[in-house]
Amino acid sequence: MAAPMSLDSADAEYVRGLVHRRAAIRLDTSQDYLIENRLAPLAEAQRISGGIAELVSRARNGDHVLGVKITEALATHETSFFRDSAPFDVLAKSVLPRLVEARRATQAINIWSAACSTGQEPYSLAMLLLEKFPVLESWRVRITATDMSAPVVAQAAEGLFKQLDVNRGLPASYLVKYFDREGASWRIKSRVRQLVQFRQANLMDSWAGLQRPDIVLLRNVLIYFDGDTKRAILDRVRQTIAADGALFLGSAETLLKVATGWSPQLDGKVTYYTVQP
Amino acid sequence: MSPFNSPTSSELCDTILHVTSTMLDAPVQQMTLHGATTSAGQWTGCVTISGPFSGGVMVTCPRYFAESMARTFLDEPADKPVSPELAREALAEMTNVVGGNLKALFSPAGSACRLSLPTVSSERGNTQGGKVIFEEWFDCLGVPVCVTVYASRAANESTVLQECTS
Amino acid sequence: MKAIIVDDSRATRSVIRKTLLEEGFDVFEAGDGKQALEELKKTGPVDLALVDWNMPVMTGFELINELRANLDFNSMAIMMVTTETESSQVQRALEAGANEYVMKPFTPDVLREKLMLLGFARD
C-alpha cells in the first residue's frame, strides 16, 4: 500500500509555523499542495514508510534534523529581488554611505553574497550601487556571489529570469532600466552583470581567493547548520571581514547565543553586526 | 525582415504553463494526448491581437471548468453554485492574461501589440479566417484545456509558420 | 489606509481584494476608469489605486493621466496591475505617473512585496 501523501490540517499548520520560525517564509493554507509536493520526495528519500504524515510527526516529536530538512525542502531557492527590502534600505542609507566615505583613499569596495541562490541578492546589490552610488562607477567594485549548489550558481551567472522572478520585489523602474526582455524571460543588463563574480563554494570549505569583504550577506543560510558549525562559520567571517565591515543575516536570524565577538547594530527594524573592536 | 517576433512553440508553451499554474495556484502540465474542442459543453474565450502582429488567442475548456476557475478566483467553496456570468468572467480573465502574455512574445523590442477585451462564447472559437499557428492541450487539475494561437491573413504568415512549427 | 481596485474582471478584483484586506486596507472597487473617477469623487482621494490597463469605457492608462492631472488625486500612489508585459508598456505607465507595476499573473506574495516597495508595510 502506498504511504499517505497528504497532510492533515494540524500537521500542515505545524509545517507552516516551522518554516516561518526558521526561514521567515510565510506559507498560507492555499499552499498546502506545495508542502505536500516538496515533502513527499523528502519522505521517500528518508525511507520513511509512513509517508509525509510520519515525516512531519517525527519532526514534531523532536527530530531536529528532519525539522531542518523540511525547512530546507520548502526554503530551497526561496528568494526574490530586494528580499525583505529593509536591509537594502539600511545598506543604501547608512552602511554604504559610511563605507564609501571610509574607502575614499583606496576607492575599492568588496561585497560577499554568501548564499546567492539564483542571483537575486547579488544583482539587487549591484543595481542598488548603480542607482544610488554613481561615484562608484570609477571605483573597483566587486560583488562576490557564492552558493553551495553548482547548477544554481550557473543559473545565477546566466542572469536570465522568469517573469514571476522579476515581478517579485523588483521596483518596476529597475526592471525597465536594468533588464532586457528576451522571449518569455528577462535578462539582466551587462552593466549589472559585470559587477558580480559568481563561484560555487561551500561555507564549510576553504574561502581561498575571497577578497576581504567590506559587507557580508549571510542571509537565511545558517539555519541549515548545527550550532558548532554556525559558530565556526561566524568566527571565520569575523576573521575575514574588514574591521569596519558589516554583516547581515536573514530577518529571522540572530547571532545572540550563537557566536561571540560581534556587536549588534540596530538601524530601524534591521539588525546588522560589526566586529567588536 | 518580419515586423514582429516569432516565438518558438516551447516559448509559447512555457508562457501558458506559467500563466495557468500561477492563476490556478496549482500545477499544470502539457498533455500529449489531445482532447476535442467540438464536444458539447465547451466554452471558448477569445482575445484578438493587433499591431505589428495581427491574430488572436483562444482558450477552450469545459463550462464546468470555467465555473471551477470562478470559485478559485472568488475564493468560494467547491460545492457553491456559480452564476454563468461569473463563470464567463473567469474564463474571460484567464484568456485575457494568457493572451496578454502571449502577445508580448510577438511584440518587437521597444513596441507593443494591442490586445482586445476578451469575449467568451459557447460556440467553437472562430479564427476569423486566420491560420492556426499553435494549438496545444494542457492538463489543468485533471481537466483538458486547449490554447490556440492564430495569425490573421494580414500577418506575415510564412515567417510565423516557419518559426512556430520548429 | 484606503485603496481602490480598478479592474473590469470581478475575479481579479476578488483576488486583489483578499490580499489588501489582509494587509489592513479599506477597499473600494470600480469596473473601469470612468467608474473609478466617479467613485473617487465620492470617497475623496485614497492612499493607493491598483489599476488594470485594458478596460472598457476608460482604460487604466487614461485613468492614470486623469489622476495625475487632477490636483485632488495626483498624490495618490498608483500601482498598475495588468497583463501588458512588454518592457515598453511598463516604461509608458511609469512615465505617465504609475509608481509601481505588477504583471499578471501574480501571486499574493508579489502584491505584498510591491506594497512594501511603496511603503505600505504591514510589519
Provide the descriptors you would attach to this structure in a database record.
heterotrimer, A: 277 residues, alpha/beta, 5-stranded parallel beta sheet, 11 helices, 43% helix, B: 166 residues, alpha+beta, Chemotaxis protein chec, 7-stranded antiparallel beta sheet, 7 strands, 27% strand, disordered C terminus
Tally of discrete structural domains of chain B: 1
- What is the tally of helical segments of chain C? 5
The helix/strand order of chain B is HEEEHHEEEEH
Q: Please bin the fraction of helical residues of chain B.
A: 25-40%
Q: Look at the helices and sheets of chain C and give the structural class.
A: alpha/beta
Distance between the termini of chain C: 14 Å
Please name the fourth-level CATH homologous superfamily of chain C: Response regulator
Category by helix and strand content of chain B? alpha+beta
Helical segment tally of chain B?
Answer: 4
Biggest sheet of chain B: strands, sense, closure?
Answer: 7 strands, antiparallel
Strand content of chain C is 15-25%
Class of chain C in CATH?
Alpha Beta
Would you give the CATH topology of chain B?
Chemotaxis protein chec
CATH architecture verdict of chain B:
3-Layer(aba) Sandwich
Describe this structure in words.
The complex is a heterotrimer of chains A (277), B (166) and C (123). Chain A has 277 residues and is an alpha/beta fold. Chain A contains eleven helices and ten strands. In chain A, the strands form three sheets. In chain A, strands 6-2-1-7-8 form a five-stranded parallel beta sheet. A three-stranded antiparallel beta sheet of chain A has the order 3-5-4. The termini of chain A are far apart. Chain B has a single domain, classed as Chemotaxis protein chec (3-Layer(aba) Sandwich), CATH 3.40.1550.10. The C terminus of chain B is likely disordered. Helix content of chain B is 36%, strand content 27%. By secondary structure, chain B is of the alpha+beta class. The two termini of chain B are 18 Å apart. Chain C is an alpha/beta fold. Chain C contains five helices and five strands. In chain C, helix 2 runs parallel beside helix 3. Chains B and C meet through helix 1, helix 2 and helix 3 of B and helix 1 and helix 4 of C.
List the helices and strands and how they pair.
The complex is a heterotrimer of chains A (277), B (166) and C (123).
Chain A: H1 9-23, H2 32-45, H3 51-60, H4 64-75, H5 86-102, E1 108-113, H6 120-132, E2 140-147, H7 150-158, E3 160-162, H8 163-167, H9 172-178, E4 179-182, E5 185-188, H10 190-193, E6 196-200, E7 215-218, H11 227-240, E8 246-249, E9 262-267, E10 270-275
Chain B: H1 9-24, E1 28-30, E2 42-50, E3 55-62, H2 63-74, H3 84-106, E4 114-115, E5 119-121, E6 131-140, E7 143-151, H4 157-164
Antiparallel strand pairs in B: 1-6, 2-3, 2-4, 2-5, 3-7, 6-7
Helix pairs in contact in B: 1-3, 2-3
Chain C: E1 2-6, H1 10-22, E2 26-30, H2 33-43, E3 48-51, H3 60-68, E4 77-82, H4 87-96, E5 100-103, H5 108-117
Parallel strand pairs in C: 1-2, 1-3, 3-4, 4-5
Helix pairs in contact in C: 2-3
